[in-house]
Amino acid sequence: IRGWYEGGDWRKIDCDYLHGHLSVEQSNKLQFALIKEPKERLQAFVRQHIELRAGFVEFVRYCQESAIPFAIVSSGLDFYIEPVLAEIGMPDLELHCGRTSFGKDGIDVSYYAPEGNIINQGFKKRYLTWFKKRGTNIIYLGDGLSDLEAARQADYVFATGHLLNLLNTQSI
Questions:
Q1: Stated pTM of the model
Q2: What pLDDT is stored for residue 32 in this prediction?
Q3: Sign of torsion, CA 83 74 136 65?
């Protein structure tokens, strides 16, 4: 989707996030405000370019068949995650992610804690804590910097990509 707003300063925002000057929630709020495209056009783009991680659908089905609770907690946004879940036949998966509204000033992004209040950082960690209060073990799957704090507190972690490097660097 970055191609939609290459004329903006999304690279500086991304750099500030990667260097720890912004949370992922703040970064997404700033970056997506730069996008002035209609929701329908962006969703059509997403539907045409779906790329799931190999084994995702099978993993979710295994969890469902084994009565293992499965939830998606993503720094991503509802306007593109929900169409993907619908396309793969899993529209009813438990989903916690950034909520969006589209307007003339771009896409407004908000993240809500389990209690319903808006939060500007620590979204995934907050949900991990909330899930742990339910008394369940947490098996966390992640691939990036925004997953690090929650992964540190999970009982088990499946890590790939940048998250795997971060965990190895920190001997976790």
A1: 0.88
A2: 94
A3: positive
